[in-house]
Amino acid sequence: MGENAAPLGTCAVFTAVLGIACCARGILETTTTLFRGLGHSKTEFQIKLVQLGLLVVAIAALAGRFGAIGVAAAVALSAVGTLPVWLYLVVKVAGVGLRDALAPTLVPAIGTTLAVVATLALRAQPAFASLGKWPSLGVVCLVYGGVYAGACALVQRSTRWPGFLSEVPLLNPASPVNPVNPQ
Q1: DSSP structure class, residue 181
Q2: Could you tell me where the DSSP H helices lie in 130-180?
Q3: By three-state DSSP, how is residue 41 classified?
Q4: 50-92, pLDDT tens digit by residue?
Q5: Which residues contact 76 (CB under 8 A, 6 or more apart)?
Q6: What one-character DSSP code corresponds to residue 131?
Q7: Prediction pTM value
Q8: What is the dihedral of CA 111, 117, 122, 128, to 10 degrees?
């Protein structure tokens, strides 16, 4: 890191905001194959159009005033702002309940929350900063990794959801009305 490098606090905020954007974008991308497989590629295009519209408005509002962090926030806002439209269309097009639509988003949401908290914790000097820059960062990563693994294991063990879209006959090979696997 040279003299012109951004302070750690600024980098932490930038990284945390992009982490939120990546999680939301990852959730949005889970249904590309679903919509295309059900013959609704137009629905996927509609989601992308909503996201693009939100991105253009958010960049215009935030980039000039906040710079790189504003652009990162615009990307995050456009992705997060598209999630309600995505959820509505998944429920409507796939014909599933809200619970099945939200089930696969739980672990990524928990992971993102933990990652954002861990990243923002870098802004403050951690109690173990006396170890030095890289060892203290290693400790933060190990603690985050352990908490994330524990949270994911707890969520997967405690949920009784049969899986995303298990009620859609076309996507459930065990379904007696699956046209691909007639019984």
Answers
A1: S
A2: 133-158
A3: helix
A4: 999 999 999 999 999 999 889 999 999 999 999 999 999 999 9
A5: 17, 18, 20, 21, 24
A6: G
A7: 0.66
A8: -90
